[in-house]
Amino acid sequence: MGWALVLHDGAGDVPRTLPPETREPRLVALCRCLDLGAAALRDGRAALDVVELVVWELEDCPHFNAGRGSVLTADGTVEMEACIMEGATLRCGAVAGLSTVANAVSLARLLMEKTPHIYLAFDGAEAFARELEANRRVYVLTWSVGQF
C-alpha cells in the first residue's frame, strides 16, 4: 500500500498580498516539513510517528500559528491545543488550553497512549504535562511571551 502526506499551515487567512519576505520563509518551512515527513515514510516509520514528527516541526517554527508561533489571546497569553488520532484503532488524544507546553501534539499522543482519557484541558492538561516534564518529548516553555 502506498502513502500520501498532506500538510497545511494552520488556521487563519494568509493574504495573497503577503510580502515575499514573509511568504517565502513559510513556504520553505512547509517544504522542509514535507520532505522530513516523506523521508520518514520512505524509511518505513509508522504513520503516527510521522504525524507527530511533522507537527512538532510546525509547532517549533515561529512562522505558523502553533506552538512557538501561536497567536496571543486578547489577554496576551498563549492557549494551544492539539489532537492526534490513530486511524487503525480509532484511539485519540486531545489537549487544549495549554500555555506552557511547547509541543502540544506530543502531549496529546502521550495522553492517548498512557491514559484512558481522550481529552484534557487547561489545568488538567497542564498538570499532566508537569507530570511528564522529565520526558524530552514534552517540555515546558521557558521563553517569555515577548519571544513568541
From TrEMBL:
It holds the Pfam family Asparaginase_2. One of its GO terms (molecular function) is hydrolase activity, acting on carbon-nitrogen (but not peptide) bonds, in linear amides. It is an enzyme of class 3 (hydrolase). Keywords: Autocatalytic cleavage. It catalyses: Cleavage of a beta-linked Asp residue from the N-terminus of a polypeptide. It comes from the Eukaryota. The keyword NAD does not apply. Coiled coil: none annotated. Its EC number is 3.4.19.5. The keyword Ribonucleoprotein does not apply. Heterotetramer of two alpha and two beta chains arranged as a dimer of alpha/beta heterodimers. PANTHER family: L-ASPARAGINASE, N(4)-(BETA-N-ACETYLGLUCOSAMINYL)-L-ASPARAGINASE. This is beta-aspartyl-peptidase. It comes from Setaria viridis.
